[in-house]
Amino acid sequence: MADLDPPFHTDPGSSMLGFSLTSPDLVICAGSPDLPSNNSRDSTDSFLNKCHQKMETALELSLDKGIKGSQEIKRNRDQLTVRFSTASPSLIHVLSLSPGSSFELPPPDVSEDKDNSMMPYADDAENEHGGSSPELAINYKRQKVELARMRKEMEELKKENCLKTKECQEALKSLQELQNELMRKSMHVGSLAFAIEGQVKEKSKWFSSLRDLARKLKIMKMEQMKLSEEAATYKSCLQDVNCISATIQSKINQQEELHNDLKAKFVEGAKERKELYNKVLELKGNIRVFCRCRPLNSEESTAGASVAVDFECSSDGELTVKSNGAFRKTYKFDSVFGPQADQADVFEDTAPLATSVLDGYNVCIFAYGQTGTGKTYTMEGTDEARGVNYRTLEEFFRIIKEREQLYRYDITVSVLEVYNEQIRDLLASGTQSVPPTKRLEIRQSGEGTHHVPGLTEAHVNNMSQVWEVLQTGSNARAIGSTNSNEHSSRSHCLHCVMVKGENLLNGECTKSKLWLVDLAGSERIAKTEVQGERLKETQNINRSLSALGDVISALATKSPHIPFRSKEP
Ligand code: ADP
Ligand code: MG
């Protein structure tokens, strides 16, 4: 309540009516019109004057009733002193004196009234001097009258004093009540001030948050204006966009029509290309025969031979075998590969067949020849020089990648061996057991193709899987015999690659097979002069090769009957 302080401020420590004025409630009290602050002084003065006046005639200033026996009156020759030692606080307040203070009365006129100051002894004086002097008697009487009057006056003064004392007590009482009231009020004011202070603080907080809100509102208004402007701009943009999107949509529709048209044309074109491509292959020859003459092996080199086969070859595939420098026999092939031709050169002429297989045609590649002429090398190859089997599948995956937007393919591989008219699944687990526990048979399907039910089919999605499958088959073939070289040359090894294709544009599905066959050695029985088990092996080999020859011959001559199932040569 700092703002309330200045108007009511009074010097600290100052007092009024004997109370400390340090408390603000008493400050308010000082201003109260009920308090006879000035009157007390006036009444005190008049009272003293009265006393003084009476002292001139009588010194019996008996204040023992009003002052309650606390006073001491000292009189000497020159002055009269009234001393209060333990005066009642009420009277002290009226006189504006503190306990122990004194005030002096002017001395009575001794010259005039020396004997009168000894009023208690007046009767004695009368007794001493009465009758002796009429003047004295008169004087005595006068004095007596005067004394009686003074006594009466004293009585009145006493009464007045009592009255005043009572008044003072009442005034004090009311003053105390007022003080208490003031205390209560002050406390109330204090609590109100506290509450107001809290409210003021709260209010200032509200004001500051109001200010913040106002500021935020201003910012938001500005932002809103900006956003409204932007919205208006966007609105106009939206109209443009709608216009553009309508144009784009119509263009898209046109393009879609065009696309569908092109798609249909493409499907048609692809079909045509496929047919033409295969026609070309057919024109090249549905059955093509390539000849490969291997280089000398290390044994032959050390033996001093210069060539494995002495031959001459023309560019159109005509090959003439020479013997001791003389021309012996001439053969006609689609292509002839000399000793210098590597695996890639040989595969070059085989590669187009991979496209045919993926287009849905069945293809069969055989390696035919005597033992040691390089059939297995050509078909399987080595780690460093991989053969036709691996390279054909590699070509498959290359084309599949190329066509991935248009076709989806599923490729599975089976590897089997035909030995002594028995089929062995080279991918089945436990292929070491010879003869195999499960007997496999060739069956003809409704479409005229042949298959072996129950054969293991391995799905391949990449070349590492292909290589794994090829290695598994190759190893199983070698393990099947105590002499792997001899066994492999007396059995046919067949890789069957099954291709399922789906045209993603028209949903057309194809199913085709590629057979990669490493045939058993084609030695003549007469030359080998074998007997027993070996003879049986050789007979089986020759019979099967002869049957194969019949089939190829019938296919080549486009015979109406192809002897696929013929058992006799
Ligand atoms: P086959 O399977 O016809 O009995 P192989 O393929 O086993 O004959 O070949 C016999 C040997 O001659 C093998 O050691 C093979 O590595 C080697 N050979 C065959 N053809 C070639 C060739 N074109 N280049 C190098 N070595 C060859
Ligand atoms: Mg071989």
Automatic annotation (TrEMBL):
<keyword id="KW-0505">Motor protein</keyword>
<keyword id="KW-0547">Nucleotide-binding</keyword>
<dbReference type="GO" id="GO:0007018">
    <property type="term" value="P:microtubule-based movement"/>
</dbReference>
<feature type="binding site">
    <location>
        <begin position="369"/>
        <end position="376"/>
    </location>
    <ligand>
        <name>ATP</name>
    </ligand>
</feature>
<protein>
    <recommendedName>
        <fullName>Kinesin-like protein</fullName>
    </recommendedName>
</protein>
<dbReference type="InterPro" id="IPR027640">
    <property type="entry name" value="Kinesin-like_fam"/>
</dbReference>
<comment type="similarity">
    <text>Belongs to the TRAFAC class myosin-kinesin ATPase superfamily. Kinesin family.</text>
</comment>
<feature type="coiled-coil region">
    <location>
        <begin position="137"/>
        <end position="230"/>
    </location>
</feature>
<keyword id="KW-0175">Coiled coil</keyword>
<keyword id="KW-0067">ATP-binding</keyword>
<dbReference type="Pfam" id="PF00225">
    <property type="entry name" value="Kinesin"/>
</dbReference>
<dbReference type="GO" id="GO:0005874">
    <property type="term" value="C:microtubule"/>
</dbReference>
<feature type="domain" description="Kinesin motor">
    <location>
        <begin position="286"/>
        <end position="569"/>
    </location>
</feature>
<dbReference type="InterPro" id="IPR019821">
    <property type="entry name" value="Kinesin_motor_CS"/>
</dbReference>
<dbReference type="InterPro" id="IPR001752">
    <property type="entry name" value="Kinesin_motor_dom"/>
</dbReference>
<dbReference type="InterPro" id="IPR036961">
    <property type="entry name" value="Kinesin_motor_dom_sf"/>
</dbReference>
<dbReference type="GO" id="GO:0003777">
    <property type="term" value="F:microtubule motor activity"/>
</dbReference>
<dbReference type="InterPro" id="IPR027417">
    <property type="entry name" value="P-loop_NTPase"/>
</dbReference>
<dbReference type="GO" id="GO:0005524">
    <property type="term" value="F:ATP binding"/>
</dbReference>
<feature type="region of interest" description="Disordered">
    <location>
        <begin position="97"/>
        <end position="134"/>
    </location>
</feature>
<keyword id="KW-0493">Microtubule</keyword>
<dbReference type="GO" id="GO:0008017">
    <property type="term" value="F:microtubule binding"/>
</dbReference>
